[in-house]
Write a structure and sequence with these properties.
The protein has 534 residues and is mainly alpha-helical. The protein is built from 19 helices and no strands. α13 packs antiparallel against α15 and α17 runs antiparallel to α19. The longest helix has 50 residues. Keywords: ATP-binding, Membrane, Nucleotide-binding, Transmembrane, Transmembrane helix, Transport.
């Protein structure tokens, strides 16, 4: 009923809505997603957790919540027997709530058996439950103020106790349980993210200790935490090496099958085309990219999901701001709408920041793992490469692969989503600008379009300068390798100065190209930052 909910100075939801939708939303969420969550727990067994005080308190409070529903059900039955009419929904809702709470208790025990120390699934369930209970809570408080609490003291006390226990369950979900039994602690200074709860992870609260310690005293190497097992080079490289070996074996099998099927002078056109395609994909690094995507793709996709939510909230904030400005222009608008819009803007900004930082954390973690994996593969390959292949590449090129090119891969992972998201964001911005400004928005569009060719030219120029810089770097490293190999002869003939001048010459040319590239980069950044102002 919009006249009662929105177009009024004292908004409220109908009793029908409060006793159906607000009760059913958390229940439907839990029942719909619990099969998928059980499959997830079944596939990720981390060991059994012993019954702790935290788990015991959760179970006791859960049984209390379930008992409230059953007591309310029998209380309504008692009133119906005394000819007090109640709709059937008043009977169904408490039972549905209680059965759902019992299901949540079963999930708590299943998580304990499978070693899940902090539950995102149940945290969201309790958040939904508390949020959906806020409207009835406000209605109960308003009714108690108007009519007095003595009019129906049993229902008031029951509801306030139920809401308090829900808040307590939500509070307990903010903490992580103890580690699974039998799990050895091998690290001297383990990373606290292992013991952090879901809320601590999304707010980066686990990192606070190091910040406080760095504020009080200068940090030393001993203060830093040891890497998690999934971030260690041994784990990353060994896992990727296994996948890469399987990919190479599959490729060799395909090539042998094509070669064996081709007789002298009678190769089929389709086979020849497929063979050329395989050679092209192998030379372009397609198979390596596919292996990396299979290994690190799922975690990267969670970051992509975060940036989609971030963009949705980013575009929602200006729309809410427009509504707030319209409220300020309307002198007859009720005051509560202003508070509602301001609170909504604050919550959207908080969620936007939260998802943005989760995206950056995820992408930098994936980028670091990709960089570590490729560096390990290149290093292992350099140890076993045969003499004929060694002639095709110098030590300088291998060093460049490990130092410069792997960093490019990391940057690619971090900024890849901008390639397809930027056009969508620009289109949406221009659409909203056109709605607000009309034809005047074309001036801003023209400014952006004029800046595009400048950035394109700078990017192309920087790419050429980078090739030149890499060429000089290869030459310098090759020369340094020759100097170190023949250092005795160099010292014997006193050629240090001559070779030093050659090395410095390469270095000077390299620095000159790097300086030009950085100047162009500064111009590009300046034009990018000034484009929104212009």
């Amino acid at each position: 009923d919009w006249n009662r909910t929105w177009y009024t100075a004292n908004p409220d939801l109908t009793q029908c809505f409060q006793n159906t939708v607000l009760v059913w939303v958390p229940c439907v969420y839990l029942w719909l997603l619990v099969p998928f969550y059980c499959v997830h727990l079944y596939c990720h067994d981390r060991g059994r957790i012993q019954m702790s005080c935290l788990c015991t308190v959760k179970m006791v409070l859960g049984f209390l919540l379930a008992s409230f529903g059953f007591v309310e059900f029998f209380y309504i039955l008692l009133e119906r027997s005394q000819d007090i009419e109640h709709h059937m929904v008043f009977l169904l809702s408490p039972i549905m709530r209680s059965i759902t709470v019992i299901l949540a208790l079963c999930i708590i025990q299943l998580e304990r058996i499978r070693g899940c120390r902090s539950s995102v699934f149940l945290f969201l369930f309790w958040v939904l439950s508390v949020v959906c209970s806020l409207v009835p809570l406000r209605a109960k408080i308003q009714l108690a103020i108007d009519e007095g609490i003595a009019s129906d003291i049993v229902r008031y006390l029951a509801f306030f106790s139920y809401f308090s226990i829900q808040l307590a369950q939500l509070f307990l979900c903010c903490f992580a349980d103890q580690p699974p039994q039998g799990k050895p602690i091998l690290e001297k200074n383990p990373c606290p993210i292992e013991d952090a709860s879901f809320l601590s992870k999304i707010l980066f609260w686990w990192f606070t200790g190091l910040v406080v310690k760095g504020y009080r005293t200068p940090l030393e190497a001993e203060d830093l935490w040891t890497l998690r097992e999934e971030d260690t080079s041994h784990k990353i490289i060994s896992d990727l090496q296994q996948d890469w070996t399987a990919e190479c074996a599959k490729l060799q099998k395909q090539q042998k099958a094509l070669a064996s099927g081709a007789t002298l002078g009678s190769r089929l056109p389709d086979q020849a085309q497929l063979f050329r395609k395989l050679q092209k994909e192998q030379s372009s690094g397609f198979f390596l990219l596919r292996t990396l995507a299979r290994k690190f793709g799922p975690y990267f996709l969670t970051g992509t999901l975060c940036i989609l939510f971030h963009d949705a909230f980013m575009f929602a904030i200006p729309q809410v701001l427009s509504l707030l400005l319209a409220f300020m222009r309307d002198g007859d608008a009720p005051l509560w709408k202003g508070y509602f819009y301001a609170t909504l803007m604050f919550l959207l900004s908080c969620l936007q920041s939260l998802f943005n930082h989760q995206y950056m954390y995820t992408c930098f973690t994936v980028g670091m793992r990709v960089k570590t994996a490729v560096m390990g593969l290149v290093y292992r390959k350099s140890l076993v490469v045969n003499s004929s292949a060694r002639r095709t590449c110098t030590v300088g090129e291998i060093v460049n692969l490990v130092s410069a090119d792997t960093q490019k891969l990391m940057d690619f992972v971090v900024y890849f989503n901008a390639v397809w998201l930027a056009p969508i964001e620009i289109a949406l911005c221009l659409f909203f600008l056109w709605q607000h400004l009309g034809p005047s928005a074309l001036a801003g569009i023209a400014t952006v379009i004029l800046i595009f060719p400048l950035n394109g030219f700078i990017a192309k120029k920087r790419s050429k300068l980078q090739e030149i810089q890499m060429k000089f770097m290869d030459g310098r490293i090759r020369l340094m390798n020759e100097i170190l190999n023949g250092i005795k002869i160099l010292k014997f003939y006193a050629w240090e100065k001559a070779f030093l001048e050659q090395v410095l010459g390469y270095r000077e040319k390299e620095l000159k190209a790097l300086k030009k590239s950085q100047i162009l980069y500064s111009i590009s950044i300046a034009s990018f930052n000034s484009s929104s102002f212009l």
